[in-house]
Amino acid sequence: MAAQVHCIGCLETGADFPSEAYGLQMRWSLERSDDWQLLEGAGEGTSQIHMSKGADPLCTFDHPLDVRLHCDALAKAAAPRIKVEVYQLDELDRLDIAGYGMVHLPLSTGTHALEIHCWRPAGSWYENLSAKFIGGYPRLVRPQLVVSAAERFGMATETTGTIYCTLNVFVVDLHGEVEEEEGVEESKE
């Protein structure tokens, strides 16, 4: 089935990121195969820097996401993915990596609450000690590894936090029929 997928939502909050951060910033991108074409909307974005207030473990991004995609063979195509990179601001106004994460875009009509679990490469004892004092946590040389589970296999990582996202997804086939959400009936007048 050829289809268009329209996603409207928000990358809302981040929680449980490293407590030494004075602020957090998130960069996101929509990773997709050649089967998908971006018809409308931005395929990437950057949030504002959320400045921490004390030991508050929750940061608010409220970054909008509004994209419309087209796919000729929805059943055969791999689902697009939302990739995030979260950066922490230190007391010297330097941005350092706080975590990478990825989640598949839902391909069913409805409202979806998503959690993007973030991680970063685990450094050696010396690298972690150095990063605490002068910054520079280990980063990925190729950020595309975030969306490739096979290439990440065996990599030592540490969990850093979670991004919470809400998306409203509409799937429409070429005949203009909206896929109905389960439990919701179409009214006929």
TrEMBL record:
Main location as per UniProt: cytoplasm
Highest rank taxon of the organism: Eukaryota
UniProt cross-references to InterPro entries, sorted A to Z: C2_B9-type_dom
Keyword Cytoplasm: yes
GO terms under cellular component: MKS complex
Location within or outside the cell: Cytoplasm, Cytoskeleton, Cilium basal body
Key words of the record: Cell projection, Cilium biogenesis/degradation, Cytoplasm, Cytoskeleton
GO BP field: cilium assembly
Name used for this protein in its record: Uncharacterized protein
Organism: Pelagomonas calceolata
